[in-house]
UniProtKB/TrEMBL annotation, chains A, B:
Cofactor: pyridoxal 5'-phosphate
Keyword match 4Fe-4S: no
Record protein name field: Threonine/serine dehydratase
Matching Gene3D superfamilies: 3.40.50.1100
Pfam families, sorted: PALP (PF00291)
Organism encoding this protein: Sneathiella sedimenti
PANTHER family reported in the protein's UniProt record: L-THREONINE DEHYDRATASE CATABOLIC TDCB, THREONINE DEHYDRATASE, MITOCHONDRIAL-RELATED
The UniProt record lists the keyword Lyase: yes
Domain Tryptophan synthase beta chain-like PALP: start-end pairs: 25-314
């Protein structure tokens, strides 16, 4: 039986990179000379929007599902997710011939619901304000003997997401660049945890920051206090991909050692970053995927004269919301 | 003095690749498993939207300007362009320390006018319905002893654009793929001419097509008749980047030998392709940059069961038009 509760390491991330070779896309690390001029900094954008399924989540999902035993494969996988992990699991399951059941909030963006179904997964929706996805998910898993793959607190998932960090380090080295700062959008913390394991080893002088939406800054607060804290109820954000209630247990165990802190942005700052990515990078980033770019553009940490990396973690945004954001302002 | 009127060859394209190494971005060749499933074909998208200045035009411009003599460099460059060649010349001139004057239609997309100015070029606008850019350009060039770099009928420009084709061939080879078809958006014909020189040599079994908007299908008609024909007046298209009146003399001399034909799409088909790129590739493509993708998606040549490459040649679209296109329909 696979052990999902172990603590990932640089070695497990490296091992995931081997597992994903030729399967995951080595996404580009883009930069815009015009934007660099405007910022007085060198900003590199790691475009996980161009990953299979439009987000980094494919990495962790494939790394996990590809290690299922034959019995696990035939019984199937279950996952719960606001939409990007759902798509990552659904496509990985399809590629590996594993039946997939995905539990998604009934108010997930239509693009995420449709894409997940499009990969052949069985989608079950729930009311995220009144039902517990953990409870529903565990019941379905138990009843059907399915393997539950959580979106971040999973050894193989975190290790897979960390391959993003290995690629960043390699791409920096190819161009003979040293990065002062790297920031990543942070929900449960799987992407930043895995990425930080890679960068601590391969680029030890790079400071790593978790970027979060206002009112969903549980990782930032937890890093500041040293303990996992929960967000207060009653708030909303357009960043549907990363509005998790509290840091993961495994992820925070890593992030408390590896991160320099958290950066918090308003939804309006995120919307401006989505427009900046449209203008300078021609990349479609969903709101939750743009918070790290937003934090660096808004100077939540001083970037002047520095070389900084923002991970654009996903691009699954409904066209109506994207159009609304584009029309709001000049950027 | 540089000779701009020579006929490019595979060797001159190869030489341009050397000149551009480490300067131009090696843009990704993307594919979407979900779209491939839908199409029953394998479609690869060469994303020149991610090139410096948001279009392939940087390649040809830099290849040309970087060969100027010291006297040419200090006197400066002049170019006329609907906007993408303008930006390519402006950024290349900036990188090389060459003063640049750019003649652009007064109704160019704001994003193209602003970006060109942003790279430090002096922009002069003209009325493209009543004035001849060729005449104005040649007068300014003569008066100020500036070197005129035409947008396509130039040996070094065509050779530079052809480096797109070298990269496509290399990227196909890395993945052990053979392409049956490659299509590129075609205005004056520089991109497809250069690309075809590369592919004829490196991927000789790939059929190459010029894609054009309806009513601006001068290359398609010229290929069919064997002679350079002009478009009829009185039509409009949203594809501002490629609404040229007639094929270039040098470019058509190449294209008549290397291409299998032309593919013509309506503006509505182009708009649908822009939406498809948003959904499946998270890439912002401008209308003129999406006509090759549109032609393949619409089956203007049969792609079922085949491996096909569409070049997405540019991404400089005003947010208002892009929003309008996104909101029009489901794709």
């Amino acid at each position: 039986m696979l052990e999902f509760d172990k603590t990932p390491s640089y070695q497990s991330v490296r091992d995931a990179a081997t597992q994903l070779r030729g399967i995951a896309i080595r996404t580009p690390l883009l930069e815009s000379m015009a934007l660099n001029d405007r910022l007085g900094a060198r900003l590199l954008l790691k475009c996980e929007t161009l990953q299979h399924t439009g987000s980094f989540k494919f990495r962790g999902a494939y790394n996990t599902l590809s290690r299922f035993s034959p019995a696990q494969k035939s019984a199937g996988v279950i996952a719960y997710s606001s939409g990007n992990h759902a798509q990552g699991v659904a496509l990985s399951a399809k590629l590996l011939g594993i039946p997939a059941t995905i539990l998604m909030p009934e108010d997930s963006p239509a693009i995420k619901l449709n894409n997940t179904r499009g990969y052949g997964a069985k989608v079950i929706t729930y009311d995220r304000y009144h039902q517990s996805r953990e409870e529903i998910g565990e019941k379905i898993a138990k009843d059907g003997n399915l393997t539950l793959v959580k979106p971040y607190d999973n050894y193989f998932v975190i290790s897979g997401q960390g391959t993003t960090g290995i690629e960043i380090a390699e791409q920096l080295k190819e161009r003979d660049i040293r990065a002062d700062i790297c920031a990543a959008p942070t929900g449960g913390g799987g992407l930043i945890a895995g990425t930080s394991l890679a960068l601590r080893e391969l680029s030890p002088r790079t400071k790593i920051y978790a970027a979060e939406p206002a009112f969903f800054d549980d990782t930032s607060k937890s890093l500041a206090t040293g303990e996992r804290v929960e967000n207060q109820d009653g708030h909303q954000s357009i960043c549907d991909a990363i509005v998790t209630p509290t840091p993961g247990k495994i992820t925070f165990g890593i992030n408390r050692r590896t991160l320099s802190g958290g950066l918090v942005v308003t939804d309006n700052e995120t919307r401006a970053a989505v427009r900046t990515a449209f203008h300078y990078f021609k990349c479609v980033i969903e709101p939750g995927g743009a918070v790290a770019l937003a934090a660096l553009l808004e100077g939540k940490v001083d970037i002047r004269g520095k070389t900084v990396v923002a991970i654009a973690s996903g691009g699954n945004v409904d066209p109506s919301l994207y159009s609304e954001i584009l029309q709001e302002g000049d950027q």
